[in-house]
Amino acid sequence: MKNSIIYKLQAPPTLRGTVKLPASKSISNRALIISALAAARQEQQTAVIMPKNLSDCDDTVVMVKALRDMPPVIDIGAAGTAMRFLTAYLAATEGEHVITGTQRMKHRPIGILVNALRQLGADIEYLGEEGFPPLHIRGRQLKGGMVEIPGNMSSQYVSAMLMIAPALENGLELRLKGNIISKPYIDLTLWMMREYGADADWTSGDTVMVRPQPYQLIDYSIENDWSSASYWYEAMSLTADEDAEIILPGLKDGSRQGDAAVRYIFSMLGVKTSFETIDGEQVVVLRKNNRSVPRLDYDFINSPDLVQTIVATCAAKGIPFHFRGLQTLKIKETDRIEALRKELMKVGVAIHVENTTDLVWNGERCTPTTEPIETYEDHRMALSFAPLALVWPGISIHRPKVVTKSYPHFWEEMERAGFSIEEIKDEEPAL
Fold first, then answer.
1. Chain centre distance of CA 24
2. Hey, which bits of 250-378 come out as E strands?
3. Which of 305, 335, 358, 426 is catalytic?
4. What is the side-by-side order of every strand in the sheet holding 321-324?
5. Average pLDDT for consecutive 10-residue bins of the chain (431 residues)?
6. What pTM value is reported for the model?
7. Strands 420-428, 396-398: parallel, antiparallel or unpaired by DSSP?
8. Known catalytic residue: 305?
């Protein structure tokens, strides 16, 4: 037998306090790649130009270790961002490496990125199943040029290509075919590249041009994470405390993070966002606005990482929904569409899938169980289901420590906000 952990959650009657959010994982991981490329050009060590307020989540920790040590075999665990970004970085950097990850990572597709890099002259070999990690990469100077890549799969493929482009001999003209998903993440990448001195921008609705103008080393500070803020928006939406107030430092008005859209979405789910100054620091303050829509139809094409939070919130508030733009959810840490469907049944909510990727709920109910919520090695399952304790007292989360992937101190912050967490050892057969 081996032990795993279950957290049983009870919510506080009042919701007040200041919450420490993690630094943005998306910005941290981009800053690391760009800084490493800038440092390599100037023959400086990555360690001396580390961005400030760097995320301490699992995904960023593996990036830091890989870029610092550059071992022959780089194991990035479950970090999808690291797999995509490092694959491009290693292909364009002198050296020979194998990059691998968890069993789930070995079933997450990377063929689109590998094919695009090969068009630039990259030497990449599959060590297992064609189109999937692990990869054997022999890095070298790449010439660049024009490449086409599907825009409707993962914006991380696009961002990975763009970030290495200033280091290519001829720069890069990247044409995106089909519908472009998660465009704010591409715009975030381009904005950060320009912050570091790159000449990169859209030249049309589907084409990005990056000229061979090297990055410059700069003093860079990471803002906090809007994706992580979404779980506190969820808590504010669900609490019965009419005078609830949550303060979130470190978030920027006009942020380039795509998940800053959480402000708009939750304005329809009973939450008011205010930017205020407290002790000389700009902070976000969440309060209740008591105005929730009777039904929510929304396209998450630009912010897929918010889906679990919004689905859980609507289910708990009894708000029917039809959500589109979810095609990337099937290739995340788990099949998030199926995971949501299964786990919401445990709290008596029967959502269903239309057109293979749309999530729809018209208020259908089923018989709830007392089973813990499974997390499927997916941090956002734990994070998005935890605030449901405000509606379903005693809800329990199986393998809750998966949150370290993006929000390592989440459970401590929940306790600081008044949530009670009981740890239960779960005996299960050894594999």
1. 9
2. 269-278, 281-292, 296-299, 321-324, 352-354, 358-361
3. 305
4. 296-299, 321-324, 358-361, 352-354
5. 80 97 96 93 57 92 95 94 97 97 93 96 96 97 95 91 97 95 92 97 96 93 96 98 97 93 98 95 95 96 92 98 86 81 97 91 96 94 98 97 95 98 75 41
6. 0.90
7. unpaired
8. yes
